[in-house]
Specification:
The chain is of the alpha+beta class. Helix content is 20%, strand content 12%. The strands form 3 sheets. A 4-stranded antiparallel β-sheet has the order 1-2-4-3, covered by helices on one side.
């Protein structure tokens, strides 16, 4: 619904719109099951060794870029270099990724290589061993933040200086991918046309062409009714205008993102590079925070403003993560009585300081 910037590279892109436009070619190295746990069905396999503090990645033999060149170990290392080299101005570098041995030193310019990336068969091999400082429980799942999931074509981009990558035509106009489709045409900010990648490791894709276009959300309803597009996204606020349309299949997509209420209980110390708790903070009281949560009628708000399409999740790990989801957690439903009982038990009644009102405010 908004113009895309056209940064067709996972290591440099920060726009959700760019990600959606790239999805036909930009494939992750690792496949997952329905609960986002890594499987061996993707372009590469990954094995986590908690004791050795390593992740071993093997890129499959027939995985090739859309120019026919094989995806190599160096391509995977190069993706980390793009992220960690300050000259690229990538926003993907995080303290979590820096759990990889040597990545921080490379980022700070203290080393020309990333010591924690081992390539037993050399740059042109297909095996990579990542060495970590510490191991995390979620390392066997997609999006864990500690293991990067894509590769970048070193043979194609190596002649472009890091500082010029983001603006390069090799990123903006003629990028390479190893996914099902390759980019054929770009109308800057407005549309992209994709055609099959003849070297795709899973065989010939089913569609002969895909054109993705930007459209104003207010035009979605009419576009659906006039059959202008084969596939189109509908935001919740447009649902009332389209739900009765004939000859259309509606598919619900439950996102992995959610909104939450946060309480200020400290401040960010820029010099120390960490959050510092304030024990005297007004909101640094568990009972008060719980009472406010019970005073928020979230279900009624969702019913009124999203036509019932949004819903409350009771805990930080949602149901999509299978066994990691705790079905016994009830969360904080609207309950004024319970909120006030918690305040009374904590001694707020005697002080006469707080009471939860029907509007959720203390």
């Amino acid at each position: 619904d908004t113009p895309f910037t056209g940064i067709f590279n996972d290591e440099l892109s920060t726009s959700a719109t760019d990600t959606r436009v790239m999805q036909y070619g930009a494939e992750s190295l690792f496949a997952t099951d329905d609960q986002y746990v890594f499987t061996d069905k993707g372009a590469a396999t990954i094995k986590i060794n908690q004791k050795a503090k390593t992740a071993t990645i093997n890129i499959k033999k027939n995985v090739k870029w859309s120019d026919g060149k094989p995806v190599t170990a160096k391509d995977y290392e190069y993706a980390y270099e793009i992220i960690a080299n300050k000259a690229t101005k990538s926003q993907r570098y995080t303290s979590s990724l820096a759990d990889l041995v040597g990545l921080e030193e490379y980022h700070e310019g203290k080393s020309n290589t990333i010591s924690g990336i081992e390539m037993p068969d050399g740059d042109n091999g297909r095996k990579v061993i990542l060495h970590f400082k510490t191991m995390k429980p979620g390392m066997n799942t997609s999006g864990n933040g500690y293991i990067w999931g894509t590769a970048a074509p070193y043979h194609y981009l190596k002649d472009v200086k890091f500082k010029d990558l983001m603006s390069s035509d090799k990123i903006r106009k003629k990028p390479l991918f190893f996914g099902a489709y390759k980019l054929q045409k770009v109308v800057r900010g407005q549309s992209v046309t994709w055609v099959p990648n003849e070297y795709y490791y899973k065989g010939k894709p089913k569609l002969s062409k895909i054109t993705a276009s930007v459209i104003n959300p207010n035009s979605v309803a009419q576009s659906i009714k006039s059959n202008k597009f084969d596939v189109i996204s509908v935001i919740n606020s447009q649902w009332q205008n389209v739900k009765g349309t004939k000859g259309v299949n509606f598919i619900a997509q439950v996102p992995l993102s959610y909104s939450y209420l946060g309480f200020k209980v400290g401040k960010w110390d820029a010099q120390r590079g960490e959050n510092v708790m304030n024990p005297k903070s007004k909101m640094n009281n568990k009972a008060l925070r719980q009472a406010i949560a019970y005073g928020m009628n979230v279900d009624q708000v969702y019913k009124r403003y999203t036509y019932g399409l949004s819903f409350r999740v009771p805990t930080l790990i949602p149901k999509q993560f299978g066994d990691y989801f705790d079905k016994n957690v009830k969360g904080y439903s609207y309950n004024i009585k319970k909120g006030n009982e918690i305040l009374d038990k904590a001694g707020f009644k005697k002080k006469g300081t707080y009471r939860v009102q029907p509007n959720g405010k203390p």
